[in-house]
Specification:
The protein has a domain of 30 residues. Helix content is 28%, strand content 15%. The protein has two helices and two strands; from the N terminus they run αββα. It has a two-stranded antiparallel ribbon with strand order 1-2. The termini are far apart.
Length: 92
Amino acid sequence: MAHVVGPKGQVVIAKEIRDRLGVGPGWVALQRLAGDHVEVYFIPPEHRKSLKGSLAGHVKVRVAPGQEWDRARDTAWEKAAKTKIGAGERVS
């Protein structure tokens, strides 16, 4: 696939390549000189959708904010630390 460089130095990324990589409008193209050629890496834009509630279907426990939440968080951290470090050690 050969493309002609435009008068402003612009190059078109072939549609087949954009489709295969999922590249769309708003993506950032990072360019790097690698010897005698250019490497192009594409970075997707940040999403603009809210993630609020996206895990609601997977959560089985509801905890009210405040002291109840603090206790639940501390208990979860304690359990995770014991699992990671070992059941015999107390984590402070």
